[in-house]
Amino acid sequence: VQLQASGGGLVQAGDSLRLSCAASRHTFTSYVTGWFRQAPGKEREFVASITWSGGSTYYASSVKGRFTISRDNAKNTVYLQMNSLKPEDTAVYYCAERRTGQTGYDYWGQGTQVTVSS
User: Do 33 and 59 form a contact (C-beta atoms < 8 A)?
Assistant: First the structure.
């Protein structure tokens, strides 16, 4: 599985961005796609995840109510709509995929930079 993250950029506080994660194929019949981020000098942190059916979504408390994760399985793409962006959202954003029921993610994309200026 190859994951390609895109959509990052430089925006001002309060603006919106939509990230995309395109998958080449899926190894698992039941899987979860997640978004993570890593800011300079900080550890990578979980942002949001969605099940393969789109029926269940999960969010970090820091983004809940501002970010929305969704998927279009016809396009093999997962989206992260980010609204009301804050400077502390500045990070490299990665998408990843894992088998349903396991905790670790097996496949990772290359990351896309999001920079939010104040």
Answer: no
Dist CA 113 CA 90 (whole Å): 8
Joined together, the tokens standing for residue 85 give: 């962006």
Contact between 47 and 37 under an 8 Å Cβ cutoff? The reply is: yes
- 92 close to 111: Cβ distance less than 8 angstroms: yes
The DSSP secondary-structure symbol of 32 reads E
N-to-C CA span, the chain: 37
Burial of 86 (0-12, 13-18, 19+ CB in 10 A): middle
Instruction: Return d(Cα 65, Cα 59) in angstroms, integer.
Output: 9
Q: Is 25 in contact with 76 (CB distance < 8 Å)?
A: yes
- In 3D, which of 78, 77, 42 has the Cα closest to residue 62? 42
**For residue 104, which of 39, 44, 24 has the smallest C-alpha distance?**
44
Q: How many whole angstroms separate alpha carbon 42 and alpha carbon 37?
A: 10
5-63 tens-digit pLDDT: 999 999 999 999 999 999 987 777 789 999 999 999 999 999 999 999 988 999 999 99
